[in-house]
Design brief:
Layout lengths: L1 H20 L16 H23 L11 H24 L4 H15 L8 H20 L5 H14 L5 H16 L4 H16 L15 H27 L9 E4 L4 E5 L4 H13 L9 H11 E2 L8 H9 L3 H26 L1
Parallel strand pairs: 2-3
Antiparallel strand pairs: 1-2
């Protein structure tokens, strides 16, 4: 099948080239004059080969070489079929008020159809355009979005699922992410947002081959970009923390309590942070303390010293367990984010 496909496509290319040499007769291949000139004979042969290729595709399409270039007539038929659909979809995209650069990129394949600039198209690219037009039209026509940001997020999600990996889309989505980050005030809030976006992108199933086979997939590219941003924010947070308190180095010491014969471990947490972590463990049922909370508080006070107190009382753990300040929530959140980031690094290093 592929052998015949390649030969027939080669013959059509020769004929199309001959038509181009004769004042763009390729645009009028389907018009046969009554006098049956040699040019008309070439046109009949071209149309006959075209019909044969159509038959092969209809009956044996699964065996054809998808990278093989389509003939002019097939490109022409595709454009005629999808001209009005492309025009309509451009209007739908404009109605979403997307950032200008993203709107320009998502409309590029549609404008190529409207302007008839698809000089070269293979079976894979044609199938991609069909899917692109169909899915975006269904998304933007059938769903009533509550707000603009929700619509934009759904468009970005579908771009990732379709693996629309052009250089312009890379940069446009980078700019959009940086624009949203600039609206946040602190490094910690930027880290939280970045982790949310990372988890959202990682959960998107890619359902299409890459638009550009030589480029990284859009999902892969965005994950790498966001991880670099998280690294940057983590370093900024560390520098800010270092400026506030030079003594908060992550060291672990041992304190011997002769009277009780218990060896205490120094942890790089405040009493309030330790109490909040103990609450998280209890809430997630990692440990069970329903009937013996007092013993749990006593146990923590006997085996740990904190970075702000050499001695911890069971009562201070209890107070922090049931009531935490906003500062404690914020500092604990920073630690959890660093833990998540470290987990991602471990997973990535193991996979590689």
């Amino acid at each position: 099948i592929q052998k015949y496909q390649v030969k027939l496509t080669y013959y059509i290319n020769i004929l199309e080239q001959k038509f181009k040499e004769q004042q763009d007769l390729i645009c009028d291949v389907e018009h046969i004059e009554l006098d049956r000139s040699i040019t008309d004979v070439y046109k009949c042969v071209c149309l006959g080969i075209e019909e044969t290729l159509v038959y092969i595709e209809e009956c044996y399409g699964q065996y054809m070489d998808k990278k093989c270039t389509l003939s002019y007539l097939k490109r022409k038929k595709f454009i005629e079929t999808h001209f009005e659909k492309s025009k309509h979809l451009i209007e739908l995209f404009k109605a979403q008020k997307l950032p200008k650069r993203i709107e320009k990129e998502v409309c590029k394949p549609l404008r190529a159809i409207l302007e008839d600039t698809l000089d070269s198209m293979n079976h894979m690219r044609r199938a991609y355009y069909r899917r692109y037009i169909d899915l975006f039209t269904r998304l933007l026509s059938s769903v009533n979005f509550q707000d603009k940001s929700e619509a934009h997020d759904q468009i970005y999600k579908l771009l990732i699922a379709l693996n629309y990996n052009t250089h312009g889309v890379y940069k446009a989505m980078e700019e959009e992410a940086l624009s949203r980050l600039d609206q946040l005030d602190t490094s910690i809030s930027k880290q939280v947002f970045s982790f949310q976006q990372l988890n959202r992108i990682q959960s998107i199933a890619v359902t299409s081959d890459k638009y550009n086979s030589d480029f990284p997939g859009l999902k892969e590219y965005l994950i790498t970009f966001i991880r670099k941003q998280i690294d940057l924010f983590e370093k900024q947070t560390e520098l800010q923390q270092s400026d506030v308190d030079k003594t908060t180095e992550a060291t672990i010491g041992i304190v011997d309590i002769a009277e009780t014969k218990i060896v205490k471990r120094k942890i790089n947490l405040t009493v309030s942070e330790l109490a909040l972590f103990s609450r998280l463990f209890a809430e997630l049922e990692i440990i069970s303390i329903k009937d013996n909370k007092h013993q749990y508080f006593k146990f923590l006070s006997q085996i740990y010293t904190s970075k702000d107190h050499p001695e911890i009382s069971a009562n201070s753990i209890k107070n922090g367990f049931y009531s935490s300040s906003e500062d404690t929530y914020a500092s604990t959140e920073r630690i959890l984010i660093r833990m998540l980031h470290t987990l991602q690094k471990l997973r990535t290093s193991k996979a590689s």
